[in-house]
Amino acid sequence: MTEYEITGRAKGGIARAESLSADERKAIAKRAAAGRWGLKATHKGNFHEDFGIDVDCYVLDDERKTAVISQRGMGEVLGLGKGGSRLPNFIKRGNISPYLGHELNEKLQNPLIFQAPTLGTNQPPTKTHGYDITMLIDLCKAIIRAEEDGALTERQANIVKQAHVIINASAKAGIQMHKILHRLA
């Protein structure tokens, strides 16, 4: 057998590929790329105008067109400072974790991984960790509950202040954040 002869499973794979339509092959390729890269952000937005919070958000190319905020952006908007590890470190602390609940804690521990839009034509894709934008409100509510119970430290007062700003801004606007980002689409 030469190196160019095709046998067994490879032969079956080729036959299957030839039997698929162009749209089916494209869908399979898209799923494979998503497996390698996670999801892809179709574009970047910001909700400074609507909420007075200057943080970058993205809309993913999934079926729901999920609006996400990067892990770094989530930490920044909460006043945790710059850096992608600030938010995970904050949620692992004993004083906030009991207020998150199992579901929110699980989602925060397992961020969405997506490919952010590149800044230039010759730039490589960037793998970004982020969260469904609605989780920001859930996290702010948990922070406020922890504050009400006296579970947070004085050093975390700025985080509590930001949580109140975010909750009040979203309530005042009367708009869900993910709808704003869909409008940017």
Explain this structure to me?
By secondary structure, the protein is of the alpha+beta class. It has one domain. The chain has helices spanning 8-19, 22-37, 48-51, 71-77, 86-92, 97-109, 134-148, 157-173, 177-184; strands at 39-46, 56-60, 67-70, 112-116, 126-132. A five-stranded mixed beta barrel has the order 1-2-3-5-4, surrounded by four helices.
In short:
This protein is α+β, with helices and mostly antiparallel strands. The protein is built from nine helices and five strands. It has one domain (38-184).
Structural classification = alpha+beta
Write down the overall mean pLDDT.
79
Strand order of the largest sheet: 1-2-3-5-4
Global shape: elongated
How many DSSP helices?
A: 9
The stretches of 5 or more residues where confidence is low (pLDDT under 50) are none
Provide the gyration radius in Å.
21 Å
* N-to-C CA distance: 54 Å
Sheet-strand content, in percent, reads 15-25%
Q: Bin the helical content.
A: 40-55%
* SSE sequence, one letter per element: HHEHEEHHHEEHHH
Largest sheet: 5 strands, mixed, barrel
Count of domain modules: 1
